Amino acid sequence: xxxxxxVIPPRPADGHKGTFGTVCVVGGRADDQRVxxxxxxxxxxxALRSGxxxxxLAVPTPIMAAALVIAPSATGVxxxxxxxxAIKPSDAAQLIDRVASDVGCFAIGPGLGAGxxxxxxxxxxxxxxxxxxxxDADALNALASLRDFHRDLRAQAVLTPHPGEFNRLAQSLGxxxxxxxPAKRDAAAAQLAQRLGCVVVLKxxxxxxxxxxxxxxxxxxxxxxxxxxxxxxxxxxxxxxxxQFFKAARSVPSSQTSxxxxxxxxxxxxxxxxxxxxxxxxxxxxxRHGDAGMLASDLLAEIPDVLAxxxxxxxxxxx
Length: 319
Hints:
nine-stranded mixed β-sheet, 10 helices, UDP-N-acetylmuramoyl-L-alanine:D-glutamate ligase, alpha/beta
């Protein structure tokens, strides 16, 4: 289905940092095989550029300072590591638990790695139900390595696989679907969403967003997004919109669960809006600079203006 994106809820004039929610990004890697710093930092910045109030970077201790240099507006939770630089999962879980009560959305996976310690952290976050989780990148690969991981899935979740990550997840779940063929991508994404009871954002040209019942094809974005870090930005924007707007939907009294409060968005709506904004930011940059050379930091810089245009003047038209 092709449809206009959800309307962005208004921001209260008397709002403060707490009003607009907190995103905790769990990612990064500093072991003896590879160092990954930019991914979680770009996700934190994506969340902040989308309008959330606070971003927390939960990354391995050896890269904490470097990640905060990239994203100085975030705060940090330094995850303990062993003598090889691998995360200590039980210690990491305890630290993440300390901030969980204040988190409006977790974003897990950018640059994380997919070894056994990472698998344990990912499963721990997906087994909690206090906050939604956006699952991206290595967190998806970690899940694909685990038999029956879906049995531990209690969190309300948005999964953001590219076709390769989709195939690994699908294989582990016994799903046979094609995430590449344009005629079959909608059905593939919907099948994964139905199996897991979550929202799936199947990335690629004309990103598919679905909760298994309602499926939408995003119409924004272009080839400049084919560069490192842009997917991490999308993860952050999705999480930032969830932290701002999904909490209102969750706070409706149980006696009124059939009525969504004004200004609240569902997980599906947050994901649709994020994909639309992310693509528009790329279109805006491309209209001035062409079809190559954009950096993730360039994309981040476009997001506030795109949000302002969507709020005030309807859909942005490139050029």
